[in-house]
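TASK: fixed-backbone design
INPUT:
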């Protein structure tokens, strides 16, 4: 005698959470590439490599011409190292908040990520405000872009770095806005990681500038 097949209603079965089992872990996949890296992250690394050469050229130009000015003001007469040290500390502190923002989104804490991203952007704005004050002070002391070789190379180098910081601040605030609109979740943490790569690069460049320009003025 043939038995009728048994039909199991899978849709009616209780979810794993109802049975006390933990939900499956979120797996963040990225498109396969020959390098094993996400193509978007690889593109950012390529951009940063080109930016390294760009800043390397600016720093080398400054180092070559900083002591060849025929008239003042000169580096030792101009810099306020204690003041700039505070600005450098503020920018370095923003690297820590950036790391905390990435860790937050990777663990699914979106509100915490917004807090740390906002803190990073705020620290970047403080640095930019300090740089603007420093530039205006130098201008009042007679140091301008066209004053001498020192002024030309100094303002070009630090001005381009300040532009990079401004772009980074705008980028971070745009990520905060996307999160507020519900468009940035744990599975999109790569976008925060890429922004973090850019921000850390800007911080490392400033360490080099601060050391070679401010701490070694002659």
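OUTPUT:
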């Amino acid at each position: 005698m043939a038995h009728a097949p048994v039909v199991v209603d899978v849709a009616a079965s209780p979810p794993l959470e109802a049975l006390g089992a933990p939900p499956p872990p979120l797996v963040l996949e990225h498109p396969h590439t020959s390098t094993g890296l996400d193509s978007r992250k690889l593109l950012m690394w390529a951009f940063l490599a080109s930016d390294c050469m760009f800043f390397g050229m600016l720093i080398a130009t400054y180092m070559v011409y900083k002591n060849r000015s025929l008239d003042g003001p000169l580096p030792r007469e101009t810099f306020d190292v204690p003041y700039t040290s505070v600005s450098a500390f503020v920018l370095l502190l923003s690297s820590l908040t950036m790391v905390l923002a990435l860790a937050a989104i990777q663990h699914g804490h979106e509100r915490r990520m917004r807090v740390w991203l906002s803190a990073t952007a705020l620290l970047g704005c403080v640095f930019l405000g300090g740089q603007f004050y420093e530039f205006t002070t130098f201008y009042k002391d007679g140091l301008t872009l066209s004053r001498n070789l020192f002024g030309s190379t100094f303002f070009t180098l630090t001005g381009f770095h300040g532009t990079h910081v401004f772009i980074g601040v705008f980028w971070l605030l745009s990520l905060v806005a996307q999160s507020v609109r519900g468009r940035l979740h744990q599975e999109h943490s790569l976008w925060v990681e890429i922004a973090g790569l850019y921000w850390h690069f800007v911080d490392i460049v400033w360490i080099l500038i601060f050391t070679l320009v401010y701490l070694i003025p002659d």
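COMMENT: The chain has one domain: 39-62+81-215.
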